[in-house]
Design a protein that fits this description.
Blueprint (H helix, E strand, L loop, with lengths): L6 H10 L1 E3 L5 E3 L10 E4 L2 E4 H10 L7 E4 L12 E4 L5 H7 L9 H12 L4 H8 L3 H8 L9
Antiparallel strand pairs: 1-2, 3-4, 5-6
This protein binds zinc ion.
Length: about 150
């Protein structure tokens, strides 16, 4: 089977193979693991569908972080239902924080981001190493986030 390869086409392809539920979830109709998570091959790797959707939409997700469902539906690929967090984050915390990029990084990360940016590193390089979007790096370097948090 021929499959699209560009990120945009892949994202479109994945979301086209979902079924909308009453709760607003977009359930993956392709193959699933026993625990209900959808899986799909992309660029030579097998991905969890929801993690791939988040990556295609928002950029790389740092390997130490998980993409989690606020809707508790493992097959759901609705970007509005996906949040990024660490293993130790509890679910209630993630729901409260929603998709806010501040949930992905610590105050120490924000300090490092500002230092690296000041030292001449590009926003793109920084975004890739922290698994956040370039615009989030921009917010952090301009001090729009993390000013009042530790
Ligand atoms: Zn959902």
């Amino acid at each position: 089977m021929t499959r699209p390869r560009t990120p945009d086409a892949e994202l479109h392809y994945l979301l086209a193979r979902t079924k909308r539920t009453r709760k607003g979830c977009k359930e993956w109709l392709g193959s699933k693991m026993k625990d209900g998570y959808g899986t799909v091959g992309f660029q030579g790797r097998t991905w969890l569908c929801h993690r791939l959707v988040k990556t295609l939409s928002d950029g790389p997700v740092h390997r130490s972080l998980e993409v989690m469902h606020i809707c508790d539906n493992p097959a759901c690929l609705n970007l509005d239902h996906l949040v990024v967090g660490s293993h130790s984050d509890n679910m209630r915390d993630m729901i409260l924080k929603g998709r806010d990029s501040k949930a992905k990084i610590t105050g120490a990360d924000a300090t490092e981001i500002r230092e690296r940016y000041a030292a001449g590193e590009t926003q793109r390089d920084i975004s890739l190493s922290f698994g956040i979007t370039e615009s989030n790096v921009g917010y952090i370097t301009r001090g729009l986030t993390w000013r009042h948090t530790a």
